């Protein structure tokens, strides 16, 4: 996981994490922070193993760590954060040693992490979509009643 260690020390990455934290300090709903990124990465890893998909672990972790990094741009300029994160990710991935082919796969997964039509795919992007949604602890959330996630999308019980 050497390339994942590099992402976690990357300047741009750390700046994005800090900016997101600033904007979400008093947010009552789910945050887009390191806790969320790691939950998504680990659930993606579990799904990958459970389904025997043999997706590369570093690609799963890279997609999970980067999928929401552009969230601050949604607060600043109203740019959808899937798009903003997909724009920020390539430079970081290149610096950390990912190939052009790998970058294309990861960026595609980031771009589609809010696209419900791909949720059943057995691909990197399908796994990222599902892990992202499964990571939210609606069953233990004080703001659940005020949250605008559709009832069917909320996690009413612990699965991962
Ligand atoms: Fe997101
Ligand atoms: Fe997310």
Describe the structure.
The protein is mostly helical. The radius of gyration is 15 Å and the shape is globular. The model has no long low-confidence stretch (mean pLDDT 95). Helix 4 crosses helix 7 and helix 7 (100-111) crosses helix 8. It has a single domain (2-153), classed as Hypothetical protein af1432, CATH 1.10.3210.10. The protein is built from 8 helices and no strands. The two termini are 22 Å apart. Bound molecules: fe (ii) ion (FE2) (2 copies).
Question: Keywords for this structure?
Answer:
160 residues, mainly alpha, 8 helices, 0% strand, globular, binds fe (ii) ion
Oligomer: single chain
* Strands, count: 0
- Tally of distinct domains: 1
Shape: globular
CATH class: Mainly Alpha
Residue share in β-strands: under 5%
Low-confidence stretches: none
Number of helical segments with 4 or more residues: 8
| Helical content band | 55-70%
Identify the bound ligands.
Answer: fe (ii) ion
SSE topology string: HHHHHHHH
- Main sheet, how many strands, which sense, barrel? none
- What distance lies between the first and last C-alpha atoms, to the nearest angstrom? 22 Å
